[in-house]
């Protein structure tokens, strides 16, 4: 197992173990826990492996854990489907390390561009495998980044990155009233992508830039959280539309692995829905925000 990637597997196991909440009965009696989560020995018993082997896994010293062992560990650690798949991706990268590569420039898929065109006054944008914003419709630009040139997404040198914006763009700190929650979700998505595409040199460079530029990113990245969801609601404050309860729905396509489209809506009949609809109509009529 490659030492760097083996350490990544171990760090994820250790962080996941610390998040497991023991059953209430286990906290009683004289042997109270001094650290959060379950002990290594307890995870090993639940997964059906030896304590010494599990310890070596956490310390990055054991190689070639089988898919069956990884599934058993996922169950013992109470991982969700996304977290389990992430563990398998980490282990796969560790057992078959490949040199970093510089993939070709991404373009939004034709299918996603058709969806953007069809949505018109519904805010939406297409994200790439590194969370670059590859395309957006007028409403999407007006909602998320009216302070940026809408043509920036078409220039690979100026194209905004959704994760960088969360951590480095002060407008996003003002936009997301639930900024911490959004930041954790953004890092979770980035973690999943980094394990899925472990040889992507540009993705690694992005993580490096954020690690140097943002203490908040370093803090959240160290937490090993994989909090991803295809739908989430955030409280936001828009300079024109005001405060909104914004539902962001993320759709993926097998046609372009790693790409996704984010569609923004609000609960029907609410003030948020009315404000979003008004913002969409304003952008379609050419109103400058």
TrEMBL record:
One Pfam family this sequence matches: HTH_31
Domain HTH cro/C1-type: 37-87
Signal peptide: none
InterPro entries: Cro/C1-type_HTH, Lambda_DNA-bd_dom_sf, MLTR_LBD
One Gene Ontology molecular-function label: DNA binding
Superkingdom of this protein's organism: Bacteria
PANTHER family xrefs: BLL4672 PROTEIN, BLL4672 PROTEIN-RELATED
Protein name per the record: Transcriptional regulator
Lineage: Bacteria, Bacillati, Actinomycetota, Actinomycetes, Micrococcales
